[in-house]
Automatic annotation (TrEMBL):
Belongs to the class I-like SAM-binding methyltransferase superfamily. Cation-independent O-methyltransferase family. GO terms for biological process: melatonin biosynthetic process; methylation. Pfam families: Dimerisation (PF08100), Methyltransf_2 (PF00891). GO terms for molecular function: acetylserotonin O-methyltransferase activity. This is O-methyltransferase ZRP4. SUPFAM superfamilies: S-adenosyl-L-methionine-dependent methyltransferases (SSF53335), Winged helix' DNA-binding domain (SSF46785). Signal peptide: none annotated. Homodimer. Keywords: Methyltransferase, S-adenosyl-L-methionine, Transferase. InterPro entries: COMT-like, COMT_C, COMT_dimerisation, SAM-dependent_MTases_sf, WH-like_DNA-bd_sf, WH_DNA-bd_sf. Residues 20-117 form the O-methyltransferase dimerisation domain. The active site is at H273. Residues 138-350 form the O-methyltransferase C-terminal domain.
Length: 368
């Protein structure tokens, strides 16, 4: 009986641990946000592969001495969650001295290496952790209880009084936050996408990147495929901030809900998950009008999640489920294959191919 009681007790404690993991998950997010705000990864990176001690980090991030003990505790969380690694330095050659009293060395991990360098993911991570996107979730429970018209059923608008895209149109700082975030994600992902699925971009002579922001994806495609004439379609206030000089890309101000310029291929990276089914069908119908027949090379190339297409590990499944709730804040939606097929066929397309080679995202080719 004692053994059975002990087993039951341990099961209860394990359940409590799981409950705490979910309850305090926000601490990990806020610790990461603090690391970004303080540029801790850059401070460690400054000292090279050997790592940096806490005093060396403090010298770079310039915090008051009174906060150093608290920074040590923050670093312990960031090390425990795999953002950084922490270890005591190895003892000097020939030394018998215990190195436990030596200052801890903090080094970058594969995760934090994504936050440094010329093509880092710090901007998209900063965007995802911005209060404008986090604060609406405090209203999630009450939001579920209110009956709202579909066009008003946006958690972001419920919290801020305007849509995400409306705020981007009116607030230059918020607009820059989104554009910089999208550029950083494209700089990271597009080389991988082109390497893993080059065939999706071969055989076409022109491509329009719809909602392509500042053109990072189109620039990567133009560089990899010099024979493809690439252009970007986006709203006026976005195109107004397009990079100057010869980028190899043409920028066109317009609205994807109204008209898409003609091209062999339309490219939609992380666009359709921002919209509900009816809005996606409107966008896709305009894509269909813009491209030639399948026999002439016409296609739509999508980078988005396709939930459950391939057997994946628990972390992939969890992130896809979490991301579906994250985009719900702007009335978006992540889709499984059945849901993708439904909107493709309703928009007048005849076939599609999903290639799940981008982690939790896939490349989807859709044919007229």
């Amino acid at each position: 009986m004692a053994l059975n009681g002990s087993t039951t007790n341990q099961a209860l404690l394990h359940a409590q641990l799981e409950l705490w993991q979910n309850t305090f998950g926000y601490i990990k997010s806020m610790a990461l946000k603090s690391a970004l705000d303080l540029r801790i990864a850059d401070a460690i990176h400054h000292h090279g592969g050997s790592g940096a001690t806490l005093p060396q980090i403090v010298a770079r991030i310039m915090i008051p001495s009174s906060k150093i003990p608290h920074l040590r505790r923050l670093m312990r969380v960031l090390a425990a969650t795999g953002v950084f690694a922490a270890q005591h330095p190895p003892p000097a050659a020939g030394s018998s001295r215990d190195n436990e009293d030596e200052p801890m060395l903090y080094t970058l991990t594969p995760v934090s290496r994504l936050l440094v360098g010329s093509q880092n993911l710090a901007p998209i991570t900063t965007m995802n952790l911005h209060p404008a996107f986090i604060s609406p979730f405090f209203e999630l429970g009450s939001w579920f209880q209110h009956e709202e018209a579909p066009e008003s059923c946006e958690l972001f608008k419920h919290a801020h009084g305007q849509t995400c895209w409306g705020q981007a149109d009116r607030d230059a700082t918020f607009n820059a936050l989104i554009n910089d975030g999208m550029v950083s994600d494209s700089n990271f992902l597009m080389d991988i996408a082109i390497s893993e699925c080059a065939g999706a971009f071969e055989g076409i002579t022109s491509l329009v990147d719809v909602g392509g922001g500042l053109g990072a994806s189109a620039q990567a495609i133009a560089k990899a495929f010099p024979g493809v004439k690439c252009s970007v379609l986006d709203l006026d206030h976005v195109v107004a901030n397009a990079p100057a000089g010869d980028t190899g890309v043409q920028y066109i101000a317009g609205n994807m809900f109204e008209k898409i310029p003609p091209a062999d291929a339309v490219f939609l990276k992380w666009i359709l998950h921002d919209w509900d089914d009816e809005e996606c069908i409107r966008i896709l119908k305009n894509c269909r009008k813009a491209i030639p027949a399948k026999e002439e090379g016409g296609k739509v190339i999508i980078i988005d999640m396709a939930i459950g297409v391939e057997p994946s590990d628990l972390r992939h499944k969890e992130m896809q489920a979490v991301f579906d709730i994250f985009v719900m804040v702007i009335n978006g939606k992540e889709r499984n294959e059945k849901e993708w097929k439904k909107i493709f066929f309703k928009a007048g397309f005849s076939d599609y191919k999903i290639t799940p080679v981008l982690g939790v995202r896939s490349i989807i080719e859709v044919y007229p």
